[in-house]
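cron nightly-structures :: item 1 of 1
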Amino acid sequence: MPKLWNETIASHRHAVREATMDAAAAVVAESGLAAVTMSKLAERTGIGRATLYKYFADADAVLAAWHERQIAHHLHHLAEVRDRAAGPGARLAAVLEAYAQILAHHHSGAMAAGLHRGEHVVRAQQRLHEFVRDLLTDAAEAGKVRDDATADELTRYVLHAVSAAEGLDSSAAVHRLVAIILTGLGPQR
């Protein structure tokens, strides 16, 4: 097949996958995770169910792909937040605040727990751990955080503590939580 034809097919496949995941996101936002069905996705996208089944085995596969895309967007957003902040302490604080806000708006329940299984989540957790560990290492070298624990120990503490943001009902509550975490990370006197 000519290269142009292959590129056209690839872009079509990509467009169908993206449209399906976008439709899933809309259904989740309106009605929750359990409301996502192949029939509803076909209706939303204007793509026949038979065609959707060529791309995804079932609604769970669509949700898994959507979830993987969401995680990638979150990690990209955290990198952007880091890059906009000046200095190691400010970068750490900005990223923790942004991550806590993500968690505060996170879906919960049995269905959401099901999405948080899988190899893509393990990889994302590892990337997040490394990302935060690097921020903590830089902040410790600049004297902004304690240096009496290893970077991996502090990273485990931070990620566990930030997870308390899930379910917080206001940005102010999230901000207070991050302030408490940062105080706990402060350099020992």
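cron nightly-structures :: done
The chain has two domains: 1-56, 59-189.
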